[in-house]
Amino acid sequence: MELREYFVEGLNIIGVELTEEIIDRLMKYAELLMETNKHTNLTAIRDEKDLIEKHFLDSMLVQKLIREDMTSAMDIGTGAGFPGMVLAICNPQIRFTLMDSVGKKTKFLEMVRDDLGLTNVEVVNERAEEYIKKDGRRESYDLGLCRGVSKLNVILEYMVPFLKVDGDFYALKMEGTGEELEAENALKVLSTEILGTEVFHLPYCKDVRHIIRMKKREKTDSKYPRRTGIPLKRPL
Ligand SMILES: C[S@@+](CC[C@H](N)C(=O)[O-])C[C@H]1O[C@@H](n2cnc3c(N)ncnc32)[C@H](O)[C@@H]1O
């Protein structure tokens, strides 16, 4: 099966519909990733179909949870753009900030953005604990996204200060990590509530994926996040 067909069939299985133009853009992004990955290590997944399923289709699972009232989104530790770049391509009406502390990854994302002419993507080469200090960033996003960065109690401290009150945070997780229990104190301190966990299956390998849906209920105390490195070293 040709790669584009493999992607389109996967989209059908997970029940997401996209225009031909958006599919073209996503395939171009996949091509750029495979090409760049030959000389710059951006992802450990080398097999083309695995890359489509485990990065692109996995990121697409979030698409069903995107609402019309969401106008801005932050992806912390986006790496080579998952899930943020995939969702930015699918949702041109939402402004995305794609953040990663590793320069070679953000350089790649800038190339993808420029190549595809995306006007709704801002790429930031920073750590979350530093970027939050920038004017106008605190309490300013409708949606937070995070996949594969750290445990829930750590990423909550990175993300929640960026969210508006009533903003949503979707954490993408492998099956049953049980991190919710460990994150009880972080959720309380950061006035964030778990609304539920959506359980999905990847279309071909059938691996289970969880998306933990959370909502920020109150303004965040300015002492969070603590200084760079502390959220990871001493989680809330
Ligand atoms: C395992 S990768 C996951 C990348 C991508 N989200 C994915 O799922 O393919 C984790 C990324 O988070 C970034 N990262 C970790 N802590 C961070 C922080 N405090 N601020 C910004 N980026 C961070 C790392 O540089 C790394 O690229």
From TrEMBL:
GO terms for molecular function: rRNA (guanine-N7-)-methyltransferase activity. It holds the Pfam family GidB. Its EC number is 2.1.1.-. The keyword Cytoplasm applies. Gene3D superfamilies: Vaccinia Virus protein VP39 (3.40.50.150). It is an enzyme of class 2 (transferase). It is found in: Cytoplasm. Its main location: cytoplasm. Keywords: Cytoplasm, Methyltransferase, rRNA processing, S-adenosyl-L-methionine, Transferase. S-adenosyl-L-methionine binds at G77, F82, A128, E129, R147. GO terms for cellular component: cytosol. Specifically methylates the N7 position of a guanine in 16S rRNA. PANTHER family: S-ADENOSYL-L-METHIONINE-DEPENDENT METHYLTRANSFERASES SUPERFAMILY PROTEIN (PTHR31760:SF0). NCBIfam families: rsmG_gidB. Belongs to the methyltransferase superfamily. RNA methyltransferase RsmG family. This is Ribosomal RNA small subunit methyltransferase G. It comes from Propionigenium maris DSM 9537. The gene is rsmG.
